């Protein structure tokens, strides 16, 4: 009998609905549980209560990551933990599933292990990482980055929130400043179940995605500096107009990305100064978000952006400056875990697509220190970071079943 | 002897320097005399004092336009006024010459008429029009528009400032709410002397411009509406990205304008919403400033903008909305006045270029009701609306001399 036969999916639905109410108010849609706020504390308190119901061993580390661990036979308690996780913090006016689904599905799997009466051959845990969204504190994916050794506790505690509180002060205030050093719980393998936050599975009607790669991300801020002048009296040939250069680059960058069929290019922010209708601007500032699952293709896109900027800047007589805001190489997930996801889906008779993650996730950080992979379920219309975020209940349950039997398979549990 | 032999140019320089100090403070560069502010009141009070020194008849109309009129022989006092004018309100952190030069040069010409001991054959006046700049109250060129019959007193008085005071209240507060109906002083001919605010005369090294046309202006706000989505998870072919469409249109519009050699196209404002680095925007909003001295060419440019918007909007699956913010057809100035300017410059041995005005001026409003023309002098590097605005003293004097003898010629004064 598969471990998934012991699941009680209605509890997952109840817990998702319960968590979705924490951080709501009558004045704004969705829910808002920014990291280390009062709402985040209420969400954490509820999570810990659910972990206690299963008699799990609870650890809080020094950046506030919460672990609930099902202990094995005492002889095996020294072994690295098989970890299932995600996060429960949200963006402003968020949906109900981003993050919470992976954490609460992890609890459901531990409950199934309880119900099946099996003692796992190694510790099995669920983790909720702190500040994944990065809205209140930068960088995002902070908790998992600290676990992977990418941020020291001192640096994290000194971070200033957008509302200027410090991370350390806020973490202590909400009662989640643990003493455990992040990363001191060794991880055997890591699985994260998550909504896709993109349209691919929903468009194809495929319930499960086996994520083999998390695409690389390059964020740059481009500042083009020209000369402000009168819109009515300055002949075109005497202009040094940064808005025109920006437009030429953005238009050509879209054409470039379209031709590659793998690179995504997005300009999400754009400002002009002085921003007056009848003044040629002296400065155009915009951001470029480039993504590609292949590092060499991402490097090529970055180089192409530079060449477009130089070409048009020379032609218009303006200067260009670029700041790198973020740069992550693509993450290739553990092939054996991806293979298990595909096998389990096939055994369960559920269609499964091998795919790339377009968004960033805690799994990309944990992949630095342990074999990791992700399971995706469809997001209706690809909408996320919005109260309109939705995944069909049947798809939520399909993802949970696949996760559960993947865990059983990786642990070698036969019931 | 020409009338210009009676000029005292040093008084013009002194008065320009004096006026340039009103509205200054230690914290900001340049001077700021926004319409109907305390600083504008101080500027007006000084102007009226200078008008009184010449025993001129002073009129204030109901929108605050200030007239100083040199009365002729009583037999001719019923004749329409030969009017010289411009404005003394400024933009924020303005230069010293935009507007003030034309008003104070007008006073200098009236002083020369005094000094020559001539009685003009009809009233000769100087006027300072209210709220030419349009920074605090829209529309700009308000005072001259009211004189031309384009705005009623009631409508003007009800206008709200950007700081939400009303025009009528502010005008009364500073003591310049006259009772004269705007337009009730008949105008024989109107001449406006102004700095070019563009680079043409300075680039050519030509001291005088005889302005035959004021180019037409078309201002539109373009709003492109697409669909916000995740920058990392949304394939290009599923995007409805208004930023890309805006960039394509702006880049192509520059190419179009460059090919016409007469149309100017400027995008001075641009915003994206929600303006987040990793979110495909749902809305792009930008303004387009189109100018051309020929109405049919301006209409063609407007039509081309529409066709670009439609073409790219269909391709990307976004919708487009345009609001007309301002639309003025080109103004052709009175040929006989332009001819007199050229003749006088030739007689004085000063190089003179027949040219188009790129900026808007009060003369374009007065041209609706009386023969009008403008005289330009060079602006260093074409800079205006800036503390760096500068015209060489020799050019200021050349412009004054031409203005003076143009007035004498039009009045048929022989000394």
Would you kindly provide a written description of the structure presented here, covering whatever features stand out?
With 415 residues, chain A is of the alpha+beta class. Chain A folds into two domains: 3-214 and 331-411, Aminopeptidase, CATH 3.40.630.10; 216-328, Alpha-Beta Plaits (2-Layer Sandwich), CATH 3.30.70.360. Helix content of chain A is 36%, strand content 22%. Chain A has twelve helices and 16 strands. In chain A, strands 1, 2, 3, 4, 5, 6, 14, 15 and 16 form a nine-stranded mixed beta sheet that branches. In chain A, strands 7, 9, 10, 12 and 13 form a five-stranded antiparallel beta sheet that branches. In chain A, helix 3 (100-116) links the parallel strand 3 and strand 4 (124-129). In chain A, helix 1 (9-21) packs antiparallel against helix 3 (100-116), helix 3 crosses helix 12 (393-411) and helix 8 runs antiparallel to helix 9. Chain A is elongated. The N and C termini of chain A lie close together (6 Å). Chains A and B meet through strand 8, helix 8, strand 10, strand 11 and strand 12 of A and strand 8, helix 8, strand 10, strand 11 and strand 12 of B.
């Amino acid at each position: 009998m598969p471990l998934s036969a012991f699941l009680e999916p209605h509890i997952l639905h109840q817990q998702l609905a319960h968590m979705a109410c924490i951080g709501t108010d009558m004045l704004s849609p969705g829910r808002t549980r920014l990291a280390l706020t009062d709402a985040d504390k209420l969400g954490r308190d509820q999570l810990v209560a659910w972990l206690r119901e299963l008699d799990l061993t609870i650890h809080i580390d020094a950046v506030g990551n919460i672990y609930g661990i099902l202990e094995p036979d005492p002889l095996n308690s020294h072994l690295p933990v098989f970890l299932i996780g995600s996060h429960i913090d949200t963006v402003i006016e968020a949906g109900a599933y981003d993050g919470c689904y992976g954490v609460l599905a992890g609890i459901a799997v531990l409950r199934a292990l309880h119900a099946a009466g099996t003692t796992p051959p190694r510790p099995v845990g669920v983790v909720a990482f702190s500040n994944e969204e990065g809205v209140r504190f930068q960088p995002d994916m902070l908790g998992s980055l600290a676990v992977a050794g990418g941020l020291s506790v001192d640096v994290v505690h000194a971070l200033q929130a957008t509302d200027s509180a410090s991370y350390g002060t806020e973490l202590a205030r909400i009662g989640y400043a643990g003493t455990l050093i992040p990363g001191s719980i060794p991880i055997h393998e890591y699985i994260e179940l998550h909504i896709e936050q993109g349209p691919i599975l929903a468009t194809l009607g495929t319930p499960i995605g086996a994520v083999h790669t998390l695409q690389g991300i390059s964020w740059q801020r481009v500042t083009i500096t020209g000369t402000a002048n009168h819109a009515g009296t300055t002949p075109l040939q005497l202009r040094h107009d940064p808005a025109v250069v920006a437009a030429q680059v953005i238009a050509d960058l879209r054409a470039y990305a379209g031709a590659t069929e793998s690179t995504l290019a997005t300009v999400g922010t754009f400002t002009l100064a002085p921003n007056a209708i009848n003044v040629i601007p002296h400065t155009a500032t915009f951001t470029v978000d480039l993504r590609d699952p292949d590092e060499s293709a991402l490097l090529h896109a970055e180089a192409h952006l530079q060449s477009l900027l130089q070409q048009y800047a020379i032609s218009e007589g303006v200067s260009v400056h670029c700041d790198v805001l973020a740069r992550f190489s693509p993450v290739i997930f553990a092939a054996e875990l991806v293979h298990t996801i595909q096998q389990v889906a096939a055994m369960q008779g559920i269609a499964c697509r091998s795919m790339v993650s377009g968004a960033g996730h805690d799994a990309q950080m944990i992949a630095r220190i342990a074999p990791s992979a992700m399971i995706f379920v469809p997001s209706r219309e690809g909408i996320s970071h919005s109260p309109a975020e939705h995944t069909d209940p049947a798809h939520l349950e399909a993802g949970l079943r696949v996760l559960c039997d993947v865990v059983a398979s990786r642990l070698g549990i036969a019931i």
